[in-house]
Amino acid sequence: MKKFIFPIFKMFSDIMFQSKFNAFTLAEVLVTLGIIGVVAAMTMPTLISNHQKTVYVTQLKKVYTELSQAAKRAINDSNAVSLDETRFNFNVAGASSNFLKTYFNVAQDCGTTLTPCFAESYKYINGTDFVVSEPQAAVSLASGASISVFENWFSYRDNGDHGYMNMNIDINGAAPPNIVGRDMFYIQLYSDGKVAEHYDIYLYDTIEQQFEQCLTGEYNSYGRGCFSKIVADGWKMDY
Questions:
Q1: Which residues pair with 187 in a beta bridge?
Q2: Is the pLDDT of residue 5 over 50?
Q3: Is the pTM value of this prediction over 0.85?
């Protein structure tokens, strides 16, 4: 790309230098405009794509921060040391819904249905269908994001694992593109307030193996892998 662009700008510079003493001809103006148009046509799609990825990551990080803050508030409000010691653990009826409605600015409560908080259909990046898990609670936030809690395992202990909530998050609600790894993500909220895909991301697979599942959906019903990849890459969507 650089090898192509440099001669173009050298040509443009030569035209400018030669024209110090001569007026631009119509042909020179048209050639220059044509060159600018070609360069713009080549670079604009990449610039637009990179900008959109930055927007997605910014929205994702905002929801991530809101989740972390909500967990801390819930723990503090109950004078507890973890969420599984609060009224939001899985033994309490409606705990997931109450957590969302108490600590988030909810614009719409969709109850135990996905729509209209979420889109009617989603896909993986490779184009195959992604089936969103049926929620225990689903809401749309005033920020435009949507959160679905489809499992609440606060207070659950298995080999010392932390309790957690399983969530699907669409960072722009039902609006397009509705693609896993772009605007749809799988996230867990743990009982100590940590937000991650897994408390130990290397517990089952490497980040690369999880990311491959996010792209293809193979062996994967939740859409896991992309959130871990973005965080590991320093909050960048480099894919």
A1: 167
A2: no
A3: no
